[in-house]
Amino acid sequence: MSDRKPGVYLCKGCGIGEAVDVGELEKLPASEFKIGTCKTHDALCSDEGVALIKADIDGGDINQAIIGACSHRVMTDKFSFNGTPVIRANLREQVAWSQPAGEEDTQMLAADQVRMAMAQASKTDAPSSSAVQELVQTVMIVGGGITGLTAALEAAKSGHKALLVERSDKLGGWANKWSKRMPHLPPYRGVEENHVGKLIAEVEAHGDITVMTDTMITKTSGAPGKFEVTMAHGGSDKIEMIGAIVVATGWRPYDASKLTHLGYGASPDIVTGVELEDMLGDGKLMRKSDGQKEAKYIAFIQCAGSRDPDHLPYCSSVCCGVSIKQSLQIKRENPDASCYVIFDELRTPGTAEEFYREAQEAGVIFMKGKVKSVGGDMSVVYEDDLLGQEVPLNGLDMIVLATGMVPNSTNPDTEAAEEEMNKYLISDINPAAGVSVAGYTGDTPDPVKRPEESIPPGGSILNLQYRQGPHIPILADGFSDSHYICFPYETRRTGIYTCGPVRRPMDMAESADDAAGAVLKAIQAIRSAGEGASVHPRTGDLSFPKIGHDICTKCRRCTVECPFGAIDEEEDGKPVINESRCRRCGTCMGACPVRTISFDNYSPSMVGDMIKAIDVPDEFEEKPRIIIFACENDAYPALDMAGINRQQWSAYVRVIPVRCLGSVTMLWVSTALESGFDGIMLMGCKSGDDYQCHFIKGSGIAKERMSKVGATLKSMALEEERVQMEEVSIADSHSVAKVINKFAATIGDMDPNPFKGF
Amino acid sequence: MTKPAPNTSEKYDLGFANWVYENVNGGDKLGLCMQCGVCSGSCPIGEQMDHGPRKLFMMIRAGMKDEVLSSNTMWNCTSCYRCVVRCPRSVPVTYILQDLAAKSVELGYAKPNENSKFSNSFWWSAKTFGRTDERLVTAKYYFSFGVVEGVKRGLDNLKIAWGMIKTGRMHLTMPHQIKDKAGLKAILAKAAEIEERESKS
Amino acid sequence: MSEKKKFTYYPGCSSQGSALHLDESLRAIAPSLDIELEDIEDWNCCGASVGHIGGGQLPNLSLTGRNLAKAQERGKQDVVTGCAACYLNTHAGNEKIKNDVNVRAQVNEALSAADMEYDEDLQVRHMCEVIVNDVGLDKVREKVTNPLTGLKVAGYVGCQTVRPFAGTDGGGNYDTYDNPEFLDNFAEACGAEAVEYNPKTSCCGGSVAVMSPDRTLHLIKTIVEDAVEAGADVIATPCPLCQTNVEMYQDAINKKYGTDFHIPVMFYSQLMAVAFGLDGEKDAALHRNTIRSEKLEKMAK
Asked: Which residue from A29, A447, C44, C68 has the fewest beta carbons nearer than 10 Å?
């Protein structure tokens, strides 16, 4: 664009004026960038300071504001001018607050911060998003249990049409079997009535909810605001247009026939918790074997097939509460009954602690230990951890196995193609290939091979017509994708949200909360799509990747690496970006070997120019230069916080914020090396199965790309140690300065980059 | 008098636990114990106990009546109340131990030991004179072990006694006593009678 | 508190013997603190921590019942005691009687054997709590005419003074269980220096120390050793049994562990009496300590 009219505004407040000579900085725009407008102020964020900038914009003097003040993460409300691009140079947190005042190196750093911002401005345009569109507002909910019913009601109450799809012939799911429910109301002490019947009636009576039972989804294509869903119902196909999808397919009990070591099958009186629910109606609990004798001595065995590497490796979190509920029901009916709950660790999260207390007061006996054997003669022998001895329990009337939850991430009624399932045996979060990264100090993580039984058998629920396959990604242990570290309900398929036990084990009350949250996310996705804006983590971002099709080599790297399945391929291999599926992380940009993917305000050439704008002293000055590409989500805020805490780090470092390490193109690394930088560090989120990357795969992909940098360095006759990658979380603000200084020391020990000055 | 504790034939017969819940001072809160062990960890001389309070409480639940009532746990309680203020479930541990000690004497489990002898000497003074006369309680306590042991213990502590006498903190005259000894005697007799009556109802 | 406040005073059995000097010094400092003490007429033993074993729960509680019935004859003013065990038993018994109509009925039935009844809702309080909450440290500072400058004090609170009631509403909410500050504050208000002292609320062994010292000598050793290591001139305590145990067993500790401890153990009220410029013997009762503090005696008027 030729009509960019930038203006530079420098702030002297918050210690900037004391740390650096702002008067010197003021000369830079004119002398180096031919920018005529440059003003300083004692406190730019004051009404007067803001008015200064606004007057220049209103007067037509400038159409880009370059603000040299605090971090771009703060004062965003003050420095916001109706869509006028604002570029920030961080002179406060990363200069005045983290460098010694008045020193030459501090001044050089401040000057480079301003240079980088001016270079950035020269390649920044206001994002031109697609226009506001009319989109479908209907929320489709898959699964008619407690979670799905609640989700449908929440969607309808928020003014959206809801389509509730259930594969069986009636609504209610497992809750239909429950005699009572665990408490969800204060004081969280008593067993409560099961409300599923009421919930079903409410859903069926609501005019904005359409219920389809006996229905399977055979095809899902499109994007948020315009999903096209094909359903099979009564032998015919039905197609519906859908705005967003909530997956609430729930769970099923672990197959107890695999628990013969706990006596299942040896006696009719050894039952699972789910089976006991059927027997706990009103009135006395009778033994299953004869139906005559009242069950008075009942042992509950917790973690039956759970937290067991041979069965379910995880904790289902609800089984302890369920056994407490069931034993309380038995004690209420017959106070003389003895209920023994044998547990390894009793897990009563949140208010369930109160419920546990209630059971203790009612006289339920909790015994900590490991079960050694269960006999068909109704005996249990266990090693009591608290008494330190083996204890036999004989002559029991009933033994209840508290079995865990298996997520319905797949549809057990259909079958998946074998090669389809094999894909899920290797985690797609952790790169299958071993990764070695220069400077990476930890052990290289092994690719995660999942036990076959952790993948629930069955076909796809949604049958997505995406390049990445028909499933919502399935995580370790078989649960459906949900980035619960930061954003519950989020899946890697934008506009599709999981909630309830399909994403992690939870009880009815938690499932209902989860449903409400997922529906809100679904509505947000529909509305954001309508405005052409991103959903989080870059909520509201109007920029989106543009592909230069004339240069594109159809290499498919962008479609493969996109963590969100946002890019489809046309038959000839041409990539097509589904704007409303895209999260704007830039991983496609980092992937593109011909650098033809860019955003209006973020591009390979923009960052390249920023790198080149930095003044690199020649080798005789003995002032090395290090560039850090810092992830904006965690690493950059950690640095800001380190500055707020007045930690100091090497003044030779220049930090460039990036949307995600996935967006870092190898071009920037080579540009920096050719420009004479002595060291390069990528600072971003943890990758692997327990990733903290806000774009899931971005940092993992960066790690993989970096593993190939060694060869490039060698070809340039440079040391591999010059390029490093560090995992930094937002909580690492206390140590991030040390990490930088250690790297700076390593670089300082090396000879200067021989490319300096070329 | 307390109702006799039921005999338990096997582990986790709840008869004994229920007896403790109903008859031991503070026992009604015992069911709330979640076996965290803060009590045992806080105990100043817990290492001298057969079982720490945590384990003793689990043994009560497990119906181990004989082991519980004949253990030395409650006799090692110094009544420092650290367990009481720290218990996350507000179980009055000290009170329970104190009363279990009384119950073990009452039910014939506690062999005469230092504590029971001391307690008896103490109560004798309180009952007879209305006050604890430290000299008499100590003397009676020492001689409850027999004359020889009594003289030995007395001699062991002679220096202490002499220090007390010198500073006027131990007297050699008539025991301290209240005026209305008859009234107090009547009150204590009546109280014992009420306790007996209540245990039978 | 500017006006005089009247309390019904429960001296407790130790006031007649081992803790005579607590009783004497408390009575001596009370007027300076604007406290008037009126003894419970013909008070009896509280039962301490072992009474129920020899006598049973209800007879033991009836001891407290009788004391409270006698206290009520003095009027509705609060009952105060300086003894930790008396406070614990009487306060706990009183709360039990007040909160449980059945217990009150049983206690009153027993009391009726001597034509007595307890039908008031008195408050039973510890002297230290009264000094913190009613008198206030400012008043203590104000009354100091003979500051104990240079005296290093290890504030040893012990157990039952603060546990289990110091942090409860009924107990006046005046300090914490594990790290109480009031005793250090008393010492500093008197012009002394409170040294950094960890075993503030460690147990001295209580009555177990009396009946079988071998089981508890190591506890007292820590209490003494830490005070000596912290450079304290004296240990200060509010508790009669702690005072006697920690003072009397130093010889036995020296014998068993080959140490050479000889540190005075004083009541806080003795320090106050000296700081208030009262008589060293008659009021502060310094001559009643078997291990005497020359430093404090020199300071005394």
From this structure: A447
Tens of pLDDT along A447-457?
455 556 566 78
Å from B19 to nearest chain C CA? Answer: 17
Q: Which of B12, B14, B55 has the CB atom closest to A386's CB atom? A: B55
Q: Give yes or no: residues B99 and B126 share one domain.
A: no
CA distance A646 to A210: 58
DSSP collapsed to 3 states, A684-750: ECCCCCCCCCCCCCHHHHHHHHHCCHHHHHHHCCCCHHHEEEEECCHHHCCCHHHHHHHHHHHHHHC
User: In this predicted complex, what is the ipTM?
Assistant: 0.92
Greatest mean pLDDT range, A104-113, A383-392, A405-414: A104-113
CA of C123 vs chain B CAs: smallest distance (Å): 21
Of the candidates A277, A645, A651, B184, the one whose C-alpha atom is nearest the C-alpha of residue C55 is B184
pLDDT band at C2 (very low <50, low <70, confident <90, very high): low
Do residues A247 and A498 touch, judged by C-beta distance below 8 A? Answer: yes
Of the candidates B78, B106, B134, which is a domain's last residue?
B106
> Which residues are registered as beta bridge partners of C155?
C236
* Chain A residue numbers touching B57 (CB-CB < 8 A): none
B18 contact A CB<8A: yes
* pTM recorded for the entire structure: 0.79
Sign of CA pseudo-dihedral A301, A303, A306, A308 = negative
The pLDDT of residue A382: 93
| Model confidence at A2: pLDDT above 60 | no
Q: Is residue B7 part of a domain?
A: no
Query: What is the domain extent for residue A45?
Result: 1-126
The residue of chain C with its CA nearest to that of B75 is C208
| Cβ A429 vs Cβ A700: under 8 Å | yes
DSSP code per residue over B116-163 = HHHHHHHHHHHHHHSS--HHHHHHHHHHTT-HHHHHHHHHHTHHHHHH
On whether any CB of chain B is under 8 Å from the CB of C290, the answer is: yes
Predicted pLDDT of residue A485: 63
Residue that terminates a domain, selected from B61, B84, B106: B106
Whether A537 and A170 have beta carbons less than 8 Å apart is answered as no
Residue A427 scores a pLDDT above 60: no
What's the rounded mean pLDDT across residues C128-133?
97
Chain B, nearest residue to A336 by Cα? B14
CA B151 to chain centroid, in Å, comes to 25
Domains of chain C: 5-126 (1.20.1050.140), 144-299 (3.40.50.11810)
Hey, what are C239's tokens?
A: 């508790």
**Residue C218 one-letter amino acid:** H
Contacts of A399 in chain B (CB under 8 A): none
B178 contacts C43? CB cut-off 8 A: yes
Of A537, A541, A517, nearest to A529 by C-alpha is A541
Task: State phi, psi for A140 to the nearest 5 degrees.
Answer: -95, 135
> Residue B77's domain spans which residues?
15-106
Interface chains of chain B (3 or more CB pairs under 8 Å): A, C
Whether A435 maps to a domain, the answer reads: no
Contacts of B98 by beta carbon, 8 Å cutoff, 6+ apart: B25, B74, B77, B79, C49, C52, C53
**Following CA atoms C103, C106, C110, C116 in sequence, which dihedral angle do they give, to the nearest 10 degrees?**
70
Report residue A644 as tokens: 């707020």
Retrieve residue A268's tokens: 């009719």
pLDDT digits 0-9 by tens, A706-725: 888 887 788 888 899 999 99
Cα first-last separation, chain A: 30
Alpha-carbon gap, residue C301 to C297, rounded angstroms = 8
Interface test mutation site (partner B, options C15, C39, C40, C50, max chain B beta carbons within 10 A): C50
Give the DSSP H or E segment for B36. Answer: none
Give contacts of C110 with chain B, Cβ < 8 Å.
187-188, 190-191, 194
